[in-house]
Amino acid sequence: MASRIVEFTLNGRLTEVMVKPLTTVQTVLREQLGYTATKSGCKQGGCGSCTVLVDGQPMMSCLLPAEDIAGQDVVTLEGLTPRDGLHPLQQAFVDNYAAQCGYCTSGMILVGKALLDSNPEPLRDDIIDALAGNYCRCTAYEPIIEAIQDAAGRMAASNGKEAHR
Amino acid sequence: MTTQAYYLPKSVDEAVGLLAEHGPSLLVMAGGTIAMPLINDGISFPERVMGLRRAGLDSISRSNGHHAIGATVTLSRMLTWDEIPLLQKAAHNVGGWAIRNMATVGGNLFAPPPSGDFAVALLALDAQVVLTSAAGQRVVPLNDFYTGFMTTVVQPGELVSEIRVPVPAGQTAYLKFARRETNTPSIVTVAALITLDGQRVSDARLALNGVGPHPFRARRAESRLIGSVLDEAAIAHAGELAAEASDPMDDAVASAWYRRKMIPVMVRRALAQIVAKEASDGI
Ligand SMILES: Cc1cc2nc3c(=O)[nH]c(=O)nc-3n(C[C@H](O)[C@H](O)[C@H](O)COP(=O)(O)OP(=O)(O)OC[C@H]3O[C@@H](n4cnc5c(N)ncnc54)[C@H](O)[C@@H]3O)c2cc1C
User: Fold this and answer.
1) What was the ipTM of the complex prediction?
2) Per the confidence metrics, is the pTM higher than 0.90?
3) Domain B171-281 - what CATH class?
4) How many Å apart are CA A73 and CA A78, to the nearest integer?
5) Contact B102 A63 (CB under 8 A)
6) How does pLDDT run across A66-98, given as a tens digit for each residue?
7) Which of A50, A63, A128, A131 to mutate to test the interface with B (most CBs of B within 10 A)?
8) Fold of A88-163
9) Is the domain B5-51 a CATH 3.30.43.10 member?
10) Which positions in chain B touch A57 (Cβ < 8 Å)?
11) Which of A13, A57, B148, B277 has its CA 20 to 30 A from that of A116?
């Protein structure tokens, strides 16, 4: 079977790609479109470094055929990053030393974003539960949990002053 | 070899039509959380794959005494569906958030052990599996669904289209014992449903996962409980009978020996939860 055209929204922009059968969203993002913030870790759905948001929900892009997301809304870390400066979640990760090698960071931040969108004042346990599918192998989880808590506070404080993406 | 064709049927009819046309060489995939890792690793290299995400099998409805859950309903959806708390609890015990956003109810029936942490709850609820093919439909009790290690009654050409769950009566408990709290393989998972008639047990269902070739019901343990009072002796005896019925395996997570040892412990804890719930409901 020949390649097919898949149309979806990537970080707010209508995007069209040509894919071979069963090409994953991860491959499309990294290899076809050059969006390398989405990492390639275990390719088993086990590490979370390839997390993207599909219609606002975290999914493992390494397990997701591109054809399955036709017409849907995909957000990667690139889409979260404003033109100038950083998203409050990104800034909170910097300020809380929540990144070391950085490989898990993109997935962690996107899970944080999905969590804060549905639950702007998460309890510590809510954050831990949300992050259960994302592995960090160097800086460990505590600063990551703290960064998300910190970002929740920052976003609540600036709510009304400016609209976040 | 790379995959030559990926089909995304828009209806069940189209899906079973493709199955009839291509035969068993067509790999069925729902959430892909089991199938895709094998493909990514080159362990499985299907020539043709059919994805079910668009096949219209993702609704939940209720009709004469049972809930009908579409095969591709995700476990995240089950987490927010509050009709049967046992299923909510079970859904939360599969993978992490992103996995639950992809993993399906139907796919969990095919999960290799020690996976099957949602199916085990369906088993305790006496669920039935609706199998659809180009020739029609048949309904199989989930209890008769498994025929062995990673084998089921599903015939070539058939799809799991729906899972029917009778509206349950009685108290339920669900416990997954594992190395960490979430996103972790089961050492032993227990799903229990107990109905009391006064002090005595009138119906007992005890389903186990992680300790056999597939989720199973501990029938002799259930018989031991029926007609008796839920006291320490009955619970301990049921736990031993459940352990005898098991056939656990060694893996990286736990030894077969340890898994078997933990069965009576987890059965006791699950039944203790039910006793406590009964006590607080009685107040
Ligand atoms: C990181 C990670 C953690 C996990 N944790 C757990 C866990 O804690 N507990 C647990 O139980 N599982 C766990 N799993 C396994 C898996 O996610 C679940 O069992 C899930 O429910 C499988 O559903 P799926 O739709 O993704 O399956 P798929 O990969 O889509 O399907 C697997 C196979 O089942 C068959 N199949 C699926 N749907 C149908 C259908 N409707 N009709 C006919 N055949 C069908 C096909 O043969 C298919 O190849 C985990 C997986 C990962 C990657």
Assistant:
1) 0.95
2) yes
3) alpha beta
4) 14
5) yes
6) 999 999 999 999 999 999 999 999 999 999 999
7) A63
8) DNA polymerase; domain 1 (1.10.150)
9) yes
10) 76, 98, 101
11) A13
